[in-house]
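This protein record is not my work; I was only asked to verify it. The record follows directly below this note.
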Amino acid sequence: MLDVRLVAVADHSADTPVVLALPTAPDEPTAEAAETTRAGASGALTDAEIVEGAAPADAPGAVADVEGAPQSAGAHDVADVQPGAGAPGAEGAAVDGALAADADEDERSAPAVLLDTPYALPDGLAATLDAWLGDERRPEPPAKGKAGEVATLPLPGGSPAVVLLVGTGEGAEKDWRKAGAALVRAASGDPEVVLALPTDVTPDAVRGLFEGALLASYRFTLASDPKPPTLRSIRVVTEDPGRFADAVTRARAVANGTVFARDLVNTPSNIKSPEWFADQATESAAVLGIDVQVRDPEWLEANKFGGVLAVGGGSTRGPRLLELRWAPPGVELHTLRHVVLVGKGITFDTGGISIKPAQGMQMMKKDMGGGAAVVGAVLAAAAQELALRVTVLVPLAENMPSGTAYRPGDVVRHYGGRTSEIFSTDAEGRMVLGDALAYAVATLQPDVLIDLATLTGGQSVALGKRTAALFSEDDDLAKALSDAAEQAGERVWQMPLPEDYLEQIDSDVADANNSGGRGAQTATAALFLRPFTGAARDRWVHIDMSGPAWSDGPNDELTKGATGWGARTLARYLESL
């Protein structure tokens, strides 16, 4: 486990690689920039032993520990700058073996300048860095401070032996999140690094730094002999660790919830049955004081959850309804705002009798990404002890073809009595969500009702891999979720609910058909769900996050595989209430 820790200035020592922060370079170099006081650096805490997942026993000065996700084995683009015969910037220093004396000074970008920290650089290092950053013989400065940019300056025989310059852009939380992620990848070959936190950094920026580092260090493997990561520790040195304790607590809570969601999605479906999913959530929830109830097929049958039973009927591994309930202890429930989160929990989706092609089926272990995200969000809320009431519902089923599977042409009666004619057994997510939404409205009286689902391929076609589709008739609620997503480093886009598209889900024999065809499929899926929200329609949000649930490769704080998308957005929204 990557150990990221705040450490007081007085409790640092030297030797391991040092990380310094660079803001975005000014548009034009100025005299003031040239005279800026240079950042100070720290060395590392010296640990004789580092225990994986825990603080070293002899580490002094630790105020807030963040034990995040397993580390990433991914690589990151890093500008390795090798000094010439002398110190960087000295006579004869070369770039790619050639001097750049004839560069057009008018077109050359301004160099970045180091941010102030509360202690001095080792002797001679400030001058070395000044000369290296300001060497005008280069076509471009070695570092411009762009968020997530990393430049490496080796100092053979020096202490520290390496300096990493990490760009922090304009200094916003999102920039520091990029910086934290880039740092983890750039330093992946070192056991430990020390980051000198700038003097004027904000708690939001520190939160972004910790989230980026913890999430980018995530790794998932079921290999028989996995190679352990080299980077095990980051020390973040600051004058006042207590000032950032709350930011670090929140970062840790959200990162852990997101990591939990990623683990659930990445787990292959030969392991991940509905029962297994419910067991994992139960175990993690119990630690945080979250009440859990898991309903089995017999209970679902008795309570007429026709959609969940139909979808799960083709599998030998029966469906479940997972319910998690968080509220701070000792508080009257009626005094708290009640948010209900519903997540699609299809643990594997073959398409059923309307079977998917082999290529389309390969990634269907991720079809419970919405369910994983809402569980991760309530874990984050409980870890922060948020003063509100949160209930999570995850209808869990495996959609398989068999002699007991539901069929095209069937009419399914959902919880609450609404009926659906089956046009496609591969439109199964809305079937289980319909039951859960109707149950939430009938029994939980939500003040806000939000569902997340990897529901349609049309979402990815319309908005790509980084932006989820959001549907709501409450523009203020939609904006609140959009703002939360932006703050969390995720993104949504509000989409319309055109009434004239309702004809695409008409049925001659039921209240609706479950597949409106390929045209506007993301919107028609939302329209299918809307009637199940009943009296909560005016405070309901539906988010289709099919594309963002998976990353094809490392990208900032994302690693290859499951992203845990939605856990961070929902956690930020809950924090705002």
Observations:
- The longest strand covers residues 389-399.
